[in-house]
Amino acid sequence: MEVGPNGVVDFTGTSRTDNTMMALKPARVPSRTDETKNRVVIAPPFYNEDLGPGQCVTDTAPGVLKLQTCEPGSAAQTWQVYPAGDSGQFELHGPKTVIRVNEGKITSGEGYVGLQTITFAD
Questions:
Q1: What is the pLDDT along the chain (122 residues), one digit of tens a residue?
Q2: FRET partner for 80 with CA separation of 20 to 30 A, picked from 5, 33, 74, 112?
């Protein structure tokens, strides 16, 4: 992932540095029900909402993702994780965008919806 001008998130970045590292973290939801389970925010792994606002991936419009100040409980920053097979694959669905993979790169456009974790650094 890379962040471009005006905070637009570019999931096609291939560099693996502290500036491109993101993690899935539990999202604040009103109460845990079937409709709210498996909800996460996408944020740098060092973000701690108890220490102040950080940056989270925000689903601003279909296919338009931006890195914006985290707002706990924000529907636009809450993603749902869906299991997608028996090999650890999963899907990430935002309120307006489904994250996809196209030609080995993560994108919000065309491509496969099944994602899988990879080793970020050795």
A1: 555 666 566 555 566 666 667 778 888 877 666 667 788 988 877 656 666 678 889 999 988 888 889 888 899 999 999 988 777 788 899 999 998 878 777 777 788 888 776 666 65
A2: 5
